[in-house]
Structures
1.
Amino acid sequence: MSIFKAFTFDTVASIVTEWGAARRMGELLSDWTDRRNLLIVTDKFLHQGGLLDQAKASLAAAGFNINVFDDVVADPPEAVLLACVGQAKAAGVDIVLGLGGGSSLDIAKLAAVLITSDQPLSELYGIGKVKGTRLPLIQVPTTAGTGSEVTNITILTTGATTKMGVVSSQLYADKVILDAELTIGLPALHTAATGIDAMVHAIEAYTSRHRKNPISDTLAREALRLLSGSLIAACEDGKNRIAREAMLLGATMAGQAFANAPVAAVHALAYPLGGHYHIPHGLSNALMLGPVLRFNMAAAAPLYAELADTLLGRSNASTSMRSARFVEHMEDLMNRSGAPRRLRDVKVTQESLPLLASDAMKQERLLMNNPVDVREADALALYRQAF
């Protein structure tokens, strides 16, 4: 008799972790592929700010023809993806590199599919709907947060306030390059929000009702240890190399965990905040984490206690006491990070809370993974606690 339930674990083919890797991007990719018509997917802030310059110089020296699509925005709408695909097709690109935050990486994934596919975008939404293959795909994150570089998920804004996801194995990258030097310029508030986002990924993967497994658990625990131990140092001194490297690796490990053990109610309640108020995804997760942790505690206490042991050392205290210590520790980290802590602080109105709760219930794909069932009345109560 097996001691483990049957499970499947999928992730990207290759991860390179190296300080300064962007400065030798041409060498790294030349050793891996003969293709040379490269599309870089990014945003204007990074492009115009010069963050791509060293990577572009290295790629050009290695003989790559470089096309840059820099129109990615936060919570990207379908039009951004389609514009990216159109530019890529016109340029005849044969390899795609996403460089930036989660939105750029998400667009790069689906662009790599649609550049060579005749499938309409509308047919891709959902789980396992992508057919065929894609162009070779490299992902280079510049924030330590979303984990998008190692997930098989792309989220697009599909209406005025609604989002939909594409989940498919084709979205796993061929190669991920983790260069923490690229995160040095990240402001403290963005460092805090994206770092808390990554911790949410680890916690929700560890407590996920479905597909939780020993590999995702191991990654989630180590990710949370790295992230929680480095968040404040990275916020206080953005040039702290040790903290930046720990944050980036932790965020990627958390991404690997939740790509296999899916996230739940924190994300389900965060999405309407992004849709209606354009609050950055990491910050919206940070705002909802405390209330959801406490809501889930009755069911998740044994798992929270295990995470307390990982972060705070083993204790002979009861499960309930260790669980409470874990929640208090997470709330203390968020308070010390400097990120906004209340919905009112980011201009969410009390009158909109029922609408947000109604919209959150549409995130059935996420809510089904929560350790406790969430009804609309529960969602409203959670928003009120966060307000």
2.
Amino acid sequence: MTLTPKTLAVSLSDAEIRRHANSDIRQLRDPRYRELRFRYSTVDRTRGAWHVVVAGKWGKAGDYPGINAKAMLATLPSILMRRSANPTAKSIASTWTTVGQLLDWYQDRMIGDRSLSEKRKASAKSALKCHLHPRLDNLALADLDRPTIDRQLMMPLQQRYELSFVRSVWGVLGVAVRKAVRLDLLPTNPLAGLEFTDFVRAKIKPKAARLHSDDVRDLLLMLEARFATEPAVAMLAALMLCHGTRLGETRLARWKNVNTSTGKWFIPAADTKTKAAHTLPLTDRACALIERYRAQQRLTGYAGPFLFPGSTGRALSATKASTLFKAMAKGEWSSHDLRKVARTAWADLGVDYMIGEILLNHAMKDLDQAYIHTSAESLKRQALETWHVWLDARGFNALHGGTYARQGSTDETGEAMNNAACSANQYPPHRRRFLDEGNAQGTPNQQPGDGNE
């Protein structure tokens, strides 16, 4: 009996692969390219995999028919060059030849990634469509290097846009390349070792606030007037001003998570930028404002789940919310400026730096989290009570409609809160020293983390 050989020497081609697909041949090799092997799939012999063997070490180069014989033979020299320098290097043979093909793959994959927010997807799609594709589409992947990136992408963008925006476009390109490398779709990372600062040395300064404490009185007057005609718009801005919340987590608020009886507003992790659940105390003034808005919403006949309903039974969309803010502010400030003015005012009122960070739901180190969970809730409530008393003195009471006895001065309350927050049991030595130094400099609102918006 004659045994069929497991390996057959042929001149590798798609025709040869198809010819032996119905045989017992396990592997094909080509005498012209002694390092290359083709192995049939044990499940479906119309498919298979390419392997490159150097110094006895095997490396998968790709799948057939995704990479056909012609493409594999064309890519083999570059793989051998890479493996000759490092026998353990990847043997991946990419089916992509241009940057545009890589970007197309990343966009398709990103759209189906449920872990990314719609806002993140929209931002990345815009960067791909308006900047990366037009400037890099036909560039060969082999030519994606520092000089080319600087000439075709970074310098043109710097000449037209803010550096913070240029950095965001660079970030999309970097994510696309790293994702492809991790999934073995690219043999090497052409951006390895490159940083944004290699192209831009200037420090990116945060945008200056366009709302200040002196503007709050006029802002509250405007919101009270608008509440009569556009209560949802006025309420959206007022709720953000009162609590320093982000636009995204505020517009998604559900009635089931707002409890004026217990005085708590719960924001699920899925609705926050940091993907960390957030609980905010509701002061009596905030509760009065919420109940006023709830009564008005019921008068219109709405009994749905959202504080700010949009179309088709969903919450107000990000695009619609931004449009409403632009119309209300007339381009003079943004929704994020409400968050900034609240944060700055908290610092001026003596609210402890760490409590301010917690209220903003900024990401924190594990060591900080370990020392704050016990008494942070009461300090958060004290901070917002102080803030809302301050707002009342500038017209907030007209918006929420409640009447409250005069509390202690905001300066006294703020000092008491700061002393409580810095007690020996509240923070470890490294954190107490950090806070003491920051307060001595008078810049508690300039500590690391303020930019984590």
